[in-house]
Amino acid sequence: MSRQFTEKTLVIASHNQGKVREIGELLTPFGIEVVSAGALGLPEPEETGATFEANAELKARAAAAAAQLPALADDSGVVVPALGGDPGIYSARWAGPTKDFTIAMRRVEDALSANGARGTDDRHASFVAVLALAWPDDHIEMFRGEAHGTLVWPPRGNKGFGYDPMFVPDGYTITFGEMDPAAKHAISHRARAFAKLVDACFKPQR
After folding, report:
1. Catalytic amino acids?
2. What is the set of domains in the chain, with CATH numbers?
3. How far apart are CA 187 and CA 31, in angstroms?
4. Which residue, of 34, 117, 190, 198, is most buried by count of CB atoms within 10 Å of its CB?
């Protein structure tokens, strides 16, 4: 049985402000005080894992140990079958040292073009998110969510972050970057992982 989260404060183990904001919005109904690892001055651990799960776990454990508070980490990325699964766990690294996702999206598009991608099937992609909730006593819970869709070019919209402006989820004609946050939260990979986390570990405020 999963451990229930009963504490008042949760560290979001990320320095990515878009990710911190999105997770904070998802946590709003639970009356939890959210603080980011960046705001606490915690260092970013080196992501040495070979999977989303491994990287989410090491980030959550590092933040929980450093802050002596429960910590929630997300490891996420876009997986493109036509690129052999790239950029995958290296999605943030494709944005370079300045974390410029305009560069990252261009790299993905250039790689697809180099591989001769033309039709929708060649441009299929999945967003993957793994959430890891760790406590200072080393207990951890992990949950995975996926969203499937198609990559478009040029990118469209400025409401999301990361690769959102080039990702059209299945069943839609607009990108994550064009969606209102509430609409994205209903169907995104992170929202699907978060729904599993909530079912297992959280109870809404009464």
Report:
1. 75
2. 9-201 (3.90.950.10)
3. 23
4. 190
What are the percentages of helix, strand and coil residues in the chain, rounded to 5? 40, 20, 40
The kind and range of the H/E element at 53 are helix 52-67
| CA distances, 121 to each of 111, 156, 168 (Å) | 15, 20, 13
List of residues 6+ apart from 119 with CB closer than 8 A: none
Task: Give CA torsion, residues 69, 46, 95, 117, to 10 deg.
Answer: -110
- Alpha carbons 40 and 19: distance in angstroms, whole number: 16
The answer to whether 130 and 143 are in contact (CB under 8 A) is yes
pTM (2 d.p.): 0.90
CA dihedral 99, 88, 132, 12 (to 10 degrees): 10
Answer yes or no: are the C-beta atoms of 193 and 22 closer than 8 Å: no
Q: What is the pLDDT of residues 176-190, one digit of tens each?
A: 999 998 899 899 999
As a whole number of Å, the end-to-end CA separation of the chain is 23
Q: Cβ distance 77 to 91 under 8 Å?
A: yes
pLDDT one-digit tens code per residue, 30-70: 888 999 999 999 998 988 999 999 999 999 999 999 999 99
Q: Quick check: 157 and 174 in contact, CB under 8 A? A: yes
Residues 179 and 113: their CA atoms lie apart, in Å, by 26
